[in-house]
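Tip: read the tokens left to right.
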């Protein structure tokens, strides 16, 4: 199936069965490959930047979330710049990224062609 092929691609050179049996929800896995561009076709920060600059509507909570983890509080801090659906501005996203925030892009297949 397509999902089996996708998992095999993600965890290569490890076999999907070994990954599921030994690592999934059990312990971390660090895959070392001699192929620095292996994930080159996966959605990137550069692709997000192009969409933001090009006017792709990325609404907070719908297609984009910005967050960081507050170790002192032990919880996630929502850094979205408005309520759900508010269109993300490139400069706001870049400012939070520069400060170390995490970006969660959702449903990219609806607006991004690899």
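Filled-in amino acids:
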């Amino acid at each position: 199936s397509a999902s089996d092929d996708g998992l095999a691609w993600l965890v290569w050179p490890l076999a999907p069965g070994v990954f599921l049996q030994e690592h999934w929800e059990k312990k971390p896995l660090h895959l070392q490959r001699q192929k620095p561009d292996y994930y080159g076709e996966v959605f990137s920060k550069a692709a997000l930047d192009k969409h933001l600059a090009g006017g792709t509507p990325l609404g907070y909570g719908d297609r984009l979330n910005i967050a960081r983890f507050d170790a002192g509080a032990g919880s996630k801090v929502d850094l979205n710049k408005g309520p759900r659906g508010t269109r993300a501005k490139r400069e706001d996203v870049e400012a939070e990224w520069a400060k170390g925030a995490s970006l969660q892009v959702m449903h990219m297949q609806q607006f991004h062609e690899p």
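The helical segments are 2-11, 16-22, 45-54, 90-98. The chain has four helices and three strands.
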